[in-house]
Design goal:
The protein is an alpha+beta fold and about 140 residues long. The chain has two domains: about 15-55, no CATH class; about 70-140, Roll (Ubiquitin-like (UB roll)), CATH 3.10.20.90. About 25% of the residues lie in helices and about 15% in strands. The protein contains five helices and four strands, in the order ααααββαββ. The chain has a four-stranded mixed β-sheet, with helices on one face. β1 (about 70-75) and β2 (about 80-85) form a beta hairpin. The radius of gyration is 31 Å and the shape is elongated. The protein starts with a helix and ends with a strand.
Length: about 140
């Protein structure tokens, strides 16, 4: 009997978990891990399974909130431009739309109502109470 007790104590210790773990085994295959396997060596025999089509598609943009409105942009030099947008669009987004129409960079454009302070880029048109048919003044900020 004493020999049996020593043989039980002399059993090999259980295997320890490695310090690193395979992300694919925990969360499933990802695009970056599959490309890393494919580009690591040319003699590699590792095969990767194609990803489901649901993970490779991009998400649709957020749903538009509110109706389309048309804003008149007056440059105070005799030219008025009509720009279609949404009431939920930010002033920064509107500046990008105006910049495409007039051929300037968005950071050079200042939009405001007549004799008011310029609009802030992060606020929406609805925050300023801009609705369909409203006219905004355009100023070009040349930095000087």
């Amino acid at each position: 009997m004493p020999q049996d007790a020593t043989t039980v104590l002399a059993a090999p210790p259980p295997q320890q978990q490695p310090d690193t773990f395979d992300i694919a085994s925990k969360f499933g295959p990802s695009f970056s891990s599959s490309t890393a396997n494919n580009t690591s060596t040319s003699t590699s025999t590792a095969t990767t399974t194609p990803l489901p089509s649901s993970t490779t598609t991009t998400r649709p943009p957020p749903a538009a909130t509110g109706p389309m409105i048309v804003i008149k942009i007056n440059d105070r030099l005799g030219t008025t431009t009509k720009v279609p947008c949404l009431a939920s669009d930010s002033i920064g987004d509107l500046k990008k739309l105006v910049a495409m129409r007039i051929g300037r960079k968005p950071h050079e454009i200042m939009l405001k109502r007549q004799s008011e302070r310029p609009f802030k880029d992060f606020l929406t048109l609805a925050d300023y109470g801009v609705s369909d048919g409203v006219q905004l003044d355009l100023e070009i900020d040349t930095g000087g």
